[in-house]
Amino acid sequence: MVKFSAWKFMREQLAALPPVTIVDLSGKTIIVTGGNTGLGFEAAKHFASMKPGRLILACRSKERGEAAVTKLGTETGYRKAEFRHLDLDSFDSTINFVEELEREDARVDVVVANAAVHPSTYKKSSHGWESTLQVNHLSTALLSILLVPLFVKTAQTYSVKPRLVIVSSATHFMYTIPESALKTPKLIETFTSEKFCDEKHMAQDRYNLSKLLNVFLTRSLASHLGPSSPVIVNNVAPGFCISELRREIPASAKRRVAIMEFFLARTTESGSRTLVWAALQGDPDKVRGKYLSSCRVAEESDYVLYGEGPKIEKRLWDETIEILEKVSPKVKDIESQYLSHA
Asked: GO terms for molecular function, please (predicted)?
């Protein structure tokens, strides 16, 4: 059984990661959400070095996305990267992104679901969900589910095993859902309530909760796809890295984070190696549904694996599906056709 400890965290942070293994991505389509900056951009640079048929940077800002495409070309010589608009704070934008791929009958080999937010104050999306929950969980889940038919079609057409990599975090070890929340009728509705999202929760725990939800989502989606599915879903912890996410942390924590960065943080490039490893390396059946860290299969927190964890996982999956079925009628069809194994 694995528990979080400061010693284990420091030892892993300071361990050298293996260099990225170059593979031939000719003809393949790679999508990186949040690919305009930070870990997403560094992962995109690694993918670009392998000359994929298409490399799509899915970003919420057209200006920053197009600038990233230009920068990528300058730094790598790869000139086929594309910007696509994707704002995970909006269900409509998420649906439109997938529908555009469907209209193109696009091949989709790898999706790295990297985009995330880390706000320290409470705000809601236009759909009424707290924005961290909207971006990091609900829209990420919607994107993942809506892409399943394209993944399956790609697998059948090209005899490949597409991969969906959900970027989670070792911070999921640092959060357990309060008993008071577990006793409420609807967990996800509780998570989005202003009462639950008090100042202390937003400053200290909100991001960690969202990453715990990523871990539960990965396990559920892989289970519902089943062991014979050609679609490989996993989640990856890139470690504590120098990242633009830190711009959203509370002012009171910035000094502490700066000190940690100086002594312990991986470079963004180093952190991106585990994203690329999760997308391209490892035996597909050994990384299916797994939590990956430091370019290897690791183990989720005891809270996820034991005790009430499996029941909470099922509850969160059922509630997420119930919410998303109201957002897109395709979710129910995909569930019945592709996600009925569990």
From this structure: oxidoreductase activity
Question: Phi/psi at 318 (nearest 5 deg)?
Answer: -60, -40
Identify the active-site residue in 125, 139, 144, 168.
Answer: 168
**Among 207, 291, 303, 338, the one annotated catalytic:** 207
Catalytic annotation, pick one of 211, 223, 270, 301:
211
- The reply to whether the predicted model has a pTM over 0.85 is yes
User: Residue 220 catalytic?
Assistant: no
pLDDT tens across 104-161, in order? 999 999 999 999 999 989 999 999 999 999 999 999 999 999 999 999 999 999 999 9
Active site residue 207: yes
Sheet holding 163-167, edge to edge: 81-85, 54-59, 29-33, 110-113, 163-167, 232-237, 291-293, 296-297
DSSP-derived pairing of the beta strands 232-237 and 291-293: parallel
In sequence order, which residues have a C-beta less than 8 Å from that of residue 262 and are 6 or more positions away? none
Task: For residues 244 and 293, give the distance between their C-alpha atoms in angstroms, rounded to a whole number.
Answer: 20
CB 68 within 8 A of CB 82: no
CATH no. of 6-338: 3.40.50.720
What whole-number distance in Å separates Cα of residue 68 and Cα of residue 35?
Answer: 8
Q: Is 175 labeled as catalytic in the residue annotation?
A: no
CB 208 within 8 A of CB 171: yes
